[in-house]
Specification:
- The complex is a heterodimer of chains A (about 100) and B (about 1000).
- Chain A is an alpha+beta fold.
- Chain A has one domain: Folate-binding superfamily (Folate-binding fold), CATH 3.30.2270.
- In chain A, about 15% of the residues lie in helices and about 35% in strands.
- Chain A is globular and about 45 Å long.
- Chain B is elongated, with a radius of gyration of 38 Å.
- Chain B has 25 helices and 48 strands.
- With about 1000 residues, chain B is α+β, with helices and mostly antiparallel strands.
- In chain B, strands 8, 9, 12, 13, 14, 15 and 27 form a seven-stranded mixed sheet that branches. In chain B, strands 17-23-18-19-20-21-22 form a seven-stranded mixed sheet. In chain B, strands 39-40-41-38-32-42 form a six-stranded mixed sheet.
- The chains are: A alpha+beta (about 100), B alpha+beta (about 1000).
- At the A-B interface, α1 and α2 of A face α21 of B.
- The structure holds zinc ion.
- Zinc ion binds next to loops of chain A.
Amino acid sequence: MRIACPHCGERSLDEFLYSGDATVRRPDFASPTAMDEFIAYTFERTNPAGPHRELWYHAAGCHAWLVVTRNVATHAISSVEPARDVALAGKPETKDGA
Amino acid sequence: MATADRRGNGRQPNRLETGGLIDRSLTLHFTFDGKTYVGHPGDTLASALLANGVRLTGRSFKYHRPRGILSAGSEEPNALVELRAGARREPNTKATVAELFDGLAAASQNRWPSLAFDLMSVNSLLSPIFVAGFYYKTFMWPAALWEKLYEPLIRRAAGLGRASDDSDPDTYEKATAFADVLVIGAGPTGLAAAQAAARTSARVILVDENAALGGRAIDDVAEIGGNPSHEWVKIVEAELDRNPEVRVLRRTTAFGCYDGSTYGAVERVSDHLARPGPGVPRQRLWRLVAKQVVLATGATERPLVFGNNDRPGVMLAGAVRTYINRFGVVPGRRVVVFTNNDYGATTVTDLTNAGAEVVALVDSRPQPTAEVQRLADTTGVRLISGVVTGALGRQTVSGARIRAHGGDTVELTCDLIAVSGGWNPNIQLTTHLGGRPVWDDRLCAFLPGALPPRMSVAGAAAGDLILDKSLAGGIAAGSAAATESGHKAVAVPVPASTAESDAITPLWRVAEPDGKAFVDQQNDVTAKDIELAEREGFRAVEHLKRYTTLGMATDQGRTANVNALAIMAEITGRSIPETGCTVARPPYTPVALGALAGHHRAKSFKPTRLPPSYRWAKEQGAVFVETGLWLRPSYFPRPGERDWLETVSREVTTVRNAVGICDVSTLGKVDIQGPDAATFLDRIYMNGLKTLAVGKARYGGMLREDGILMDDGTVARFGESHYFITTTTANAVKVVQHMEYCAQWLWPELDVQIVSATEQWAQYAVAGPKSRALLQKVVDPTFDISDAGFPYLGIGEITVGGIKARLFRLSFSGERAYEIGVPARYGDALIRRLMEAGAEFGVCAYGTEALGVMRIEKGHISGPELNGTTTPRDVGLGGMVSTKKDFVGHVLGKRPGLVDPDRPALIGFRPVDRSARLRSGAHFIARNATPTAENDEGYMTSVAYSPSNGHWIGLGLLKRGPERIGEIVRAVDPVRGADTLVEVVSPVFVDPEGGRVRG
Ligand SMILES: [Zn+2]
């Protein structure tokens, strides 16, 4: 598999580390239901057979965290964005990655 | 090799006087089963054996039937041999692809005591026990007998060669290459495709598994573009070799298709030599990345299934043509050609031209086609509409029993039966990413279905078996791939070529065969085995394969799978597509583990990192230890010291009484800057950092989001917005990754920059009561390092001999101590300067062992306690955890299971019998309880012999440990058979008041 890092260009899979679901957002620690929210955020995952938004880290490259949209059934990658941009864009994304 | 045999050229009874691509001016000597033969450059072991009249090359896997050479390529199921000797001995090499070199030593496999007289062929008489499902049924016999009786027996009987026990003396390497167009296969299609693509100036890589390019253009007699096809190959090859944008990889098999248009290929750089030249690898593993790929892998001929069709002397018709045309070898003198298609029938012409007598052309089709009729007319060969029911002869073919369609049976004397059951396109690489092949009724073969992205298929692999269509398809695919990859199209005309016919009528098996009719020759699976599998309910292809082991040998059933599927379809009355299809997984052909490992073996398996004082420590005779990738001094023995314990104890005592120096450069170091650095670190660490003043350092711990301790270290503040932190050696990389994650993904609004500085700084701990006195001599005098000017936990930028440096007053040992850091390139100079300055104070260097002893004596946690299961509270750091701020791990760290007061918590231990030794890993059991898992109360994490206490001490996690000081428990170590009474004590064994660090 090859990932087109927005900073470095298309690079081989072995330069990257996978870090899971990019559709979950860290809850507010002061929320009255913080415990339940953090449990869901940390442990509960859907397992979609199709497009998935996920975090990758360009470990052997520029050290950027990336949000990669990848079809987990075919490994086809439809977008790669800097995670910082996605996070700053702000609006929490829904679980199905819309 | 016996020198007596090395004289002269020897006679090669089956070698033609002229023709083929071999060099008759040079003679190569080789041995097979100890006997010497000769061949020529350009030969394979198989062609040379055939030239010498050797037909019996091995015994079969289960029944030990005599076997010969079936094919001329990598699909060979039978002629597997052991090559070379000693450490280079390799089993299961196909004689059909092993290139001949002078001195090659080959041996047959699966024969005992000799090839011609094989005691195990008695298995043929016992064949009822070796039927399909044999392995599965065997497992149902009494299990107790398996290990002692069945397994050794089966292994003896069924061994597939012997690997060498010595380590591989050769080297292997890995390489990556990029192409606009990758062409796999250099037959007529691939050559045409590569030529068309290269003319657009695209970057082209052409790979072919053979030493010689050309495929069927050198195996068959044909004309292309007005030249003999082998001359056309030379012309195209020269054009490609001249083009600097083209890389031709010969002897290279593309074995796998992976995501991202990436292909794995193995180049057999030196397999055709007695040994690799100096600095040259045996094989090279390629990762090929291409914008577009043209698959031109050709097709593999199917055998026909009839009685004793495995006898040496039964050979694929295409292989017969290859041996004649490429190698100048005629594999038989009296030949029966047995075919169900027009292409196979053309073998008659090649045989006749080579001087062999074709005694019959047996065509299984009810009516011979016009093509076959014309062939019979021009050659005068006897044409029989019918089938060969059985090969005759015990060791090799001596005749053929033929049944004409009218029912008449005739036996003809012959020494070779050339068979053609049609062609299977080599579409394995199209299925590696999940593509399903599609059945084609006209060709009676599977064609590629959905293709991997950016791949096209041309020529025989796409079902275009005829030369003219192959060339046109290759040019079209090569041009299209080049334009797709961004190059301007260049028109390439399709050269004229010999007219051909690919008409076929299927014949999957001969009814009522005379003798065993084999489908998979490598795994000894017969047509009857398939019937049995069907009767026992194993009808699905995947069940059939596992039940009969069909297609599961090293050839992956390339000559067997489709015949088997078709026979199953025939038995069950279903169509072939209804019965299933065969998909392949990588690798297409076996790949040596050595090639996959490349240079990553022995010491080069992973990089070795050397700390800045390495050279100096080596001079001192230090004993080193691997910690992660680092090679760190473990201890520094001195003459007269009896063992490591004496050395380590001396190092500890020196630090506690004078001064010692330890290289701590391997600790992770991270530089963090930015207006929001303070806020950022406050969210990373569990303890408050906002109150950390400039010029000060503080101990800190960080958690994972699930509340478990991740790492610990120090945080030093060099400026309002400038921090420098250390991590444990093991987690240096992980912590940076975690911080980047937090900065980029969790809190992108914070203005903070993070950079690893582990390699930039050489850092030494200078520890002991005399440490300041020593440093006073080293640090430039303008800097005040008195206790007033530089108190405990003070930090500052200093200079050493004018070099910028950093000083930290930190202590891991519990003594007055400093860490001094200089740019890494001065590390060697600094260790020498420190040791020189310390001589008057009795300084010593100490290694990781003494470091560990002293931290255990002080109850500090390290790797064994930071083990991915412990919370801050578990290791006595509960009081540090902030309750006010948000930080990673805050919320989940409060989960009930993690704050349970019954959790094992860190405490100290000493043996009741002070002379007893402690062992880490021992489990704690109450004094009067039985040592069972239910009574387990925790375990010892770290132990050391404490020179300061004069006995062994330990740290461990004990249920409610801190509440149990004074209690005596058992430390039970069933693995090492120890059961020691230990007393629960404070985890701080030295200077419990902590006065020494402040001086
Ligand atoms: Zn990058």
